[in-house]
Design goal:
about 260 residues, mainly alpha, two-stranded antiparallel sheet, two-stranded antiparallel ribbon, 10 helices, 4 strands, about 65% helix, about 5% strand, globular
Length: about 260
């Protein structure tokens, strides 16, 4: 349980395992044995066991009969549920932040917005994810509610992980080489620029202490995220029995997974 003379806590082990799950080092369904994890992180099995219990409560790990702890395998419906929950919680956090933020919170938020807007305009999309995470974590902390902030951070971690598991969508058709006029920005760049402009407006509302404006802007951002996810992966509704019979009779072979 010691590494370089320093005690490694179960919290640190939990963070390390969670990061490896989110990064894809441990794939969905992969077994997580205490012995191998203890060896990987240079600790005893005790903090590993505690970490796995925490990760199971967070939804990153599941226990299977005869298999032990495994990386969870979230469904598209679960992602949609979490996005719905985020749409309820983030506006509350933003409204609280407008009422309880400190000057230190505002300084960090404004700095992150400035960096995010610069990176977005330059198309440096790979650099935006950590900035976005830092922005939302700071905004959650500005709510002045440790319980709410903890829930929001945990929620975003899981949503980020589930997004990372999504297969890439079909590539957009290439634009004609002879297209007149200046080149257009990629759709992902346009979305990033719009998102960070929205973050800037949200921080302005928080700075003014305008709780309702902050709430509405956070709700708008969450609604757009949910709409974008549904466009990426539309859900297949459960069909009535009669419709299923009709479908079978017509030999419909369309895939149910979009």
């Amino acid at each position: 349980m010691f590494q370089g003379g320093r005690r490694i806590s179960a919290h640190a082990v939990c963070t390390a395992i969670r990061d490896d799950i989110v990064s894809g080092a441990f794939a969905p369904g992969a077994r997580l044995t205490e012995e191998l994890l203890a060896r990987r992180y240079g600790v005893s099995r005790v903090p590993v066991r505690e970490a796995l219990r925490t990760l199971e409560s967070e939804g990153f790990v599941t226990s299977r009969r005869h298999a032990g702890a495994c990386v969870a395998q979230p469904s598209p419906e679960e992602v949609a549920d979490l996005l719905d929950i985020r749409a309820l919680m983030e506006p509350l956090g933003a409204a609280r932040a407008a009422q309880r933020r400190t000057e230190a919170h505002l300084k960090v938020l404004r700095g992150l917005v400035r960096l995010g807007q610069e990176r977005a305009r330059r198309g440096q999309l790979a650099e935006l994810r950590p900035l976005c995470d830092w922005f939302h974590e700071t905004l959650a902390q500005a709510s002045g509610s440790p319980s709410l902030a903890g829930l929001l951070v945990q929620l975003r971690r899981k949503i980020d992980w589930m997004y990372a598991l999504e297969p890439a969508g079909p590539a957009s058709p290439a634009a004609p080489a002879s297209r007149p006029g200046p080149p257009r920005a990629e759709p992902a760049v346009v979305r990033a620029v719009e998102s960070w402009e929205g973050y800037g407006a949200l921080v302005d509302a928080v700075a003014r202490g305008d709780a309702e404006r902050a709430r509405s802007l956070a709700a708008l951002h969450a609604e757009r995220s949910l709409a974008e996810y549904r466009l990426r992966r539309p859900f297949t509704a459960v069909a009535p029995a009669a419709a299923v019979r009709d479908s079978k009779q017509s030999h419909n072979t369309a895939s149910a997974r979009n």
